[in-house]
Amino acid sequence: MPACKAFTWGKGVPDALKLSGVRAGYGATVVLEDVDFSLAEQGSLAVLGRNGVGKTTLLATIMGLTTFQAGRIEYAGKTIERLEVHERARLGIGYVPQTRDIFPSLSVEENLLVAARPGRWSRDRVFDLFPRLAERRSHMGNQISGGEQQMLSIGRALMGDPALLLLDEPLEGLAPIIVDSLLAAIQRLTQVESLTVVLVEQSARLALEMTQEALVLNRGRITHRGASSELLADPKLLSSLIVSG
Questions:
Q1: What pLDDT, in 10s, does the model give residues 229-245?
Q2: Could you tell me where the beta strands, DSSP code E, fall in the chain?
Q3: Which one of 15, 98, 135, 158 has the fewest CB atoms closer than 10 angstroms to its CB?
């Protein structure tokens, strides 16, 4: 399939994020090749594809955690591909990694407060989003369940007051009741809090139901892009894109 051309969603709305000709990976290994897309402010994007096609690498590259080899990354009109991770965070990019990376020896409340920056998100607002965390505020990070750790990881990212939130498989391996709570929280973040969200998720249907737009990666390249609703309505196309080699 030929490489997809650059595309922009949200006509007339400023871009929150724009990647142009991005090539990146780890050391000398190239994982992403010629990645082009832009996402409007307050937009939501599902990143889909099989395991190992570059989804996590895409988020890590936006955050500055990979070896950047070529191209351009713009966030809120600023060129950021040469900035350090903490500089990108200060500009308003929040990252929730698949590994969660909470501090096991700090309490739930301390995990939140250590990441606090001035802005809309306070400890109490996070507790309102995730009441389970309020109930366990004094528990250590290694004393809460996997689902609660995921809530805490998202809450900690919010404490940095991001405008763009990168979520890497937030629903992986969690019980259905926890998945429902996280889905409700993510919908609130996109629909009420007006965050721009990029979501990597193995469950394509859930990801498409939560987002406005979608792209599919295969071997580090974008092979499909368009409205989430259109892809959700075409299961045959969705299946062919996800399972194709």
A1: 999 999 999 999 986 44
A2: 15-26, 29-40, 44-48, 67-75, 78-79, 93-96, 164-168, 196-200, 213-218, 221-227
A3: 135
